[in-house]
Amino acid sequence: MLKRSLIITGLFSFLSLAQNNNQLMNKFALAQSFEQAGELTKAAKLYAELYEVNPDNNVYFMSLNRVYVQSKNYAASVDLLEHELERRKNDINLYGMLGSTYYMMGNEQKALEVWDEPFAILGSNPAFYRTIASYAVERRAFEKAIDLYKKGKAVAKDKIFFSYDLGQLYTITMQFENAAEEYCSILSTEPQQLQTIETKMLANANKPDALKQFTSVVEIHLSGDNLSFSHLLAKLYTEGKEYQKAYDIYNNIDEKQSGKGHELKSFADFLLGEGQYDLSEKVYEKILERYPASPIVPSVKLGYAKCLEADLMNNYIKQVPVWKPYFGLKSYDSQEVEKVISAFNEIANLYKNSEIAYEALLRIGMIKFYLQNKQKEAAEYFNKIVDETKMSNNTAEAYNELGNIALINGDLTESEKDFQQITTLPRVKPDDLNKAKFNLAKINLYRNDFDKTKKLLSEVIKNLKDDNANDALELSMLLNSAKYDSSNLVLFADAEFLADQKEFDEAAKKYSLVAGDPKAFILHSIASFRFAEMQLALDDYPQSIELLNKIVDEGDKNIYADKALYLLGQIYQNGMKDNAKAIEMYEKLLAKFPSSIYLDDARSAINKLKGKIS
Amino acid sequence: MIRVVFLNIVLFFSLTSFSVLSQSKILIYMDLNQTDHLKAYGITFHALERGLKADWLLNYKGGSFLLDYDDKIAAECRLEGVAFDEVSLSEAADIYAFVQSDENNMDVVRLEKAPKIAVYVPPGFQPWDDAVTLALEYAKVPYDKIWNDEILQGDLKKYDWLHLHHEDFTGQYGKFYASFSNAQWYIDQQLQYEKDAKKNGFKKVSNMMKAVAQTIKNYVGQGGFLFAMCSATDSYDIALAAQNVDIVAQMYDGDAADPDAQQKLDYNNTLAFKDFVLEMNPYVYEYSDIDIQPAEIGNFDNDYFTLFDFSAKYDPVPTMLTQDHVNVIRGFMGQTTMFRKSRIKSDVIILGEREGTDQVKYIHGNFGRGTFTFYGGHDPEDYQHAVGDPPTDLALYKNSPGYRLILNNILFPAATKKKQKT
């Protein structure tokens, strides 16, 4: 009987407890629903009831405080937290939360005091400093957070975490020197953290003064033993475009560690990409001198040769009147040229029968042809390519240059053969193919086979996106309009051939004959213009100016009048160095020919020259 | 016939009496034949800067400009690629007569003085962040950059025209929190704003922005011209409505928004909008229901808005603001793309809208002695401009009708105030 009574009582107690639990859960769910619906007063009332029933339930407590804060009932939040603190004096988070509430109330002084309280009561535990600091960061009280992290760091055995936190906060508050000090303190004990620190510093390097301050601090920490500072400083110098200083550091790193030039090679490649040819050349040379047997030598040599070539071309361009439509080939011999040729030769010999070797041979051929005017030697290099392979990306270009050499020497048969070869190559690019067809058309023009010329031009014109299409259109238009004036057309074709051979004097005579015939219509226009161009190629500026002025005076009767005005501007600008007169010509072009295709060029020239004059 | 000739003579002398010495005029036509519409505004602006006068021929050849012939203007037109005609004085007289004839919906507005322009932009901003500065840079119209410090210390009085960059006046940092809270630019931006607020004596950024919004409103009330685009439009009015209530969530200003924020908004304080419902969810990239959502636009290919045709003689201001060589313009999106018609106050003039919808693109209104113009969308030539997108190269959009609307606003303050005919 007693046993049965005990069982029944137990069952009732269990059922009552379960029912009570269910009620609490339902109430909590209802409170959550009110909170989500924005009914914060109702939610707070329910959470308060739940908290009263079960003050040890942290979920109820947190929910109640959250709703108080959301509804800006800060006084209630303070009461709740203070009440809880009386029960749980050792709970560090309660101090953090109470300080936060005061901060949100606008009572910042009290917040700071509350955040300081636990250290007097609970002692100086580094973890406590981190916890309270995170509350300060959440409230964006960065100065207080910095203060707490500093104190935490002072008592912590492992200071790295604190240094990272401080570095981050100093960066946020733009105290870059302090941030750099923290990061350097990490590197001094943990050099393997270099990658992370480098990323953090470079991510902020574009902020005002940041790079300067980072650099000055790392410079102070630079030490002989810990190379991580050297790596970091080299990166900062590179970021600040202080390449020579960066090089000195990389050089030093390379001497001290057995990197076998890898670091230097990466730096040299970077400099090449940045157009810093002089320094990259120096770095490549250093690698070759220091590691003549290293496996990276071939790629270093290629980089070195490209560097030399880029430098050479920069200097060459300054010597050549590229603004002129026609100019003669002059020999540009210098030690620089030989150095580049020798560098490419080395590559060609090292990587025989490879694509790199063919590219090197092509570049040597080009230098021989255009810079040294040594056509025979150039042809040997081009022939080596075309004899060895029809599959290289450089074969079409080699044939093209062989064709040009033959053309300049007046050998139309040989030239045609070379250009024709391009059309039969298995891997010819569309641009190369069109260029070859245009050149073949010109050869037929020089042979006075106008029908064949027109046929080839029509093939080029099919692809209007191609660079040769404009020239093809212009020539085609000329042939169509002058087809009934074959005597002048033949004369004009002869002149064009001579101009291509750089026989400017002879060409000028023939152009002048056509230009002198006013009945030649369009041929008269173009021949007049070419005649002026030939005088310009012969450096006879006064004569050229006179001829161009005549064309301009013809106005709408000469379709090259706008082009003539533009060329006059170019002569004054680049030849006579008379900027005021050049501006006058360009402005005249804008006024007289508002539909000219040279307007944009004329405008940018005016803007540039006006900048110079002022 | 004699009467017409007499009228022409009278009109001619009444409009050119100050320039009788000039031998001819420059007509910068703004119809489809113009080669660079945008730079044409710059040319006219520069002429005003030099103390010359210009006449804006409303609705004549797309809203043309007629200036006294001057070698410098002609040279500048040629240099900048702006097409123009040199017209004789008798031809000019014919044009004036034609424009002022009662039979044509056209009129002449005299432009007297180049307005002093300020653009509200944060430090470190790039011109390509904003369509107005892009247009000003392209047209070579000079402007000053001002920010919160300058506005709060009263510098606005130095300027005739203020453009609001697409800043957020509610203090919610553009409501980019959900997508970009970890992005460096967002973090930097928030810090910059917080520093500004602290420096200017505000505990919260949202409070500083409300003060800035109110100062701008006072500037308009005292005769300033305000032009805003994109999110500066609705966020500005929301900030005015929320002068006395916290509408900003905890992640933006450190404390929760007022639970009754919606009810506490004061629509009497706004310039353009009324009865709007706030988007209180801090994770949703939207301020209120003023803005039209992408889904409401439907097929983006059909997104075009139409400019209203106003009476040039009776409503010169809206006519000036809608001068364009086309009247149907391709739409473009922004954080604020268009305005919901039901949320626009009744005294605000609708300048452009999507026909047959409640979607309004371009509005104008008066407040006190000044005016405001709001234009929805971010970049008229970049349909969906996203954060980090490259800048629009206006050299490729010299004839952009959408950009023209921006530049109309710049010349509008240069107009001589005429007695209203209505």
Structural summary, described in words:
The complex is a heterodimer of chains A (614) and B (422). With 614 residues, chain A is an all-alpha fold. Chain A has a domain at 471-613: Alpha Horseshoe (Serine Threonine Protein Phosphatase 5, Tetratricopeptide repeat). Helix content of chain A is 77%, strand content 0%. Chain A is built from 32 helices and no strands. In chain A, α12 runs antiparallel to α13 and α19 packs parallel to α21. Chain A is elongated and about 130 Å long. Chain A starts with a helix and ends with a helix. In chain A, 41% of the residues are buried. With 422 residues, chain B is of the alpha+beta class. Chain B has two domains: 2-111, 2-Layer Sandwich (Alpha-Beta Plaits), CATH 3.30.70; 117-414, 3-Layer(aba) Sandwich (Rossmann fold). Chain B is built from 15 helices and 15 strands. In chain B, the strands form two sheets. In chain B, strands 6, 7, 8, 9, 10, 11, 12, 13, 14 and 15 form a ten-stranded mixed beta sheet that branches. In chain B, strands 4-1-3-2-5 form a five-stranded antiparallel beta sheet, sandwiched between helices. Chain B starts with a helix and ends in an 11-residue tail after the last helix. The model of chain B is unreliable at 1-21 (pLDDT under 50). Chains A and B meet through α31 and α32 of A and α3 and α8 of B.
